[in-house]
Amino acid sequence: MNKTILNLAVAASLGFSAQGFAHEGGMVNDAYVGDRAGHIVTDGSGDCVRTSSWSEDKMIEGCGLVVAPVAEPAPAPVPKAVSETVSMSAAALFAHDSAEFNRDQPELDALATRVKSLNSIESINVVGHTDSSGSDAYNQALSERRAAAVKNFLLSRDIDASLITTSGMGESQPVASNATSEGRAQNRRVEITFKGTEITK
User: Fold this and answer.
1) 97 with 170, same domain?
2) N or C end of the chain, less CB within 10 A?
3) What was the pLDDT predicted at 76?
4) 151 and 101, same structural domain?
5) Which pLDDT score, from 0 to 100, does residue 136 have?
């Protein structure tokens, strides 16, 4: 007997309607009863009608075989541009009228840690500044020496020398009035600007 006719006969004998419950999920194999078009027959509850040849390895999607959805790959993280400037008081860094560090430097250590945390480092620019006490030439040289000292500190923390530039502005770029001791203290500073990229979570 033709296999399709046989399957239909089985479905009819079991009281299933091949016309009314053709399964949309796939074509029949020998594990399921099929209609004349080769579609799987389902019963009134929507369950696929199995034959005596059914086995787990012959399950068809929608007839008891759960197909896990394909997970979309997570988007690749996009690095974010970073540009930060840190201003440090010369009094906190150096001995008076000197480019020698006056003690341990937790602020510079924290700065080095922050820079090294970046995904990539584009540049680090170190600029020294002084107040207006003394001659222009003296202040210019002092600001350059202090910038160089900060660079050497960063080199000691394994930051690539090729990434670091230094310069001194002397007394030419005050941020406060040099007429007061408070203003002069604000003007004696080192500014470090670093640029790069980081990947945020």
Assistant:
1) yes
2) C
3) 85
4) yes
5) 96
Alpha-helical segments (H) within 74-135: 90-93, 106-116
Nearest alpha-carbon partner for 55 in 66, 43, 65: 65
- Domain with 151, as residue range(s), is 80-198
Distant-in-sequence, close-in-space partners of 153: CB < 8 Å, separation ≥ 6: 101, 105, 108, 112
Which residue carries 């959805």 as its tokens?
A: 69
DSSP 137: H
Q: What is the pLDDT of residue 14?
A: 45
Please answer whether residues 16 and 43 qualify as being in contact, where contact means their C-beta atoms are separated by less than 8 angstroms: yes
pLDDT at 26: 55
Closest among 94, 159, 83, 104 to 128, alpha carbons compared: 94
**Range list of β-strands (E), 35-163:** 39-41, 80-89, 120-129
Say what the pLDDT of residue 16 is: 44
From CA 3, how far away is CA 125, in angstroms rounded?
Answer: 83
pLDDT value of residue 12 = 45
- pLDDT exceeds 50 at position 80: yes
Domain count, the chain: 2
Helix residue ranges per DSSP H, the chain:
3-13, 90-93, 106-116, 136-156, 181-187
Determine the pLDDT at residue 167. 98
